[in-house]
Sequence to fold (297 residues):
Amino acid sequence: MARMKFLCDAERCIECNGCVTACKQEHEVPWGVNRRRVVTINDGVIGAEKSISVACMHCSDAPCMAVCPVDCFYRTEDGVVLHDKDLCIGCGYCFYACPFGAPQFPQAGAFGLRGKMDKCTFCAGGPEPDRSEAEFKKYGRNRLAEGKLPVCAEMCSTKALLGGDGDVIADIYRQRVTTRHKGSEVWGWGTAYGQGKPGAAPAPAGAKS
Amino acid sequence: MRSRRFTRAMLVAVAVAFGATGCMEVEQTSIGQKQGRYQGKPDGHPWDNAPLALGGGNAKWTKGDRNTWEAQLKSRAEVQNEYKRIGQ
Fold:
């Protein structure tokens, strides 16, 4: 059973913002809303600058889903977290709960009035008939129903951003790490529990990955 | 005298019963909704759609068959692995 996930390889991301542009173009995302964005740390520091592309991570235990007062979130059978815009009241609780800042709110009127929440759909549309005009207007294109993967990952020029079934993209990433002998500490055991065997001390801060 | 006491006791019992209902939690969702559960419209499965005739990027799966749809997405995801693409 597929479980859709994103994985961004910080060793490869060159902060080109191609993923951001592709997403905005594909779904005709309105001005002021960014379903995806590129975050850079240590900007300008030689050897320490890293970028990753961030959007909704489609959490297995999504906090947005837990805090929503109108219960407009649901998870599809392939692990994509989506929401019903007809139910959303634009309260912003999901924005405060999300550790990735994924929920976005378009300005719906004067005086900064918040509209209904908008976020990355993993290019899976929403609760409208698949590939319909209504679905496109509310949620964007449903590429999964076309047998395609998210456009941000497919358009990534360096293939830093991987998207698809978690098992498949983990295999791709593992092969990269074992081939280049670098990057295993970025995501996974080394990051969570330190270098070497379980229980060992974490890597010193500022160490080159 | 006895019936008077009984009536008073009954009145007290009814008053207590009515008073206690004020402590109950009032149901705040309409009928058919369950708190903590998705309340929106049902969504269809992506594999229930037929592959596009045009613009589908050679996507192939059998309509309604989840396994073939997943196989299509897996093969598409493998395109992201340039180590395999170079070897082919």
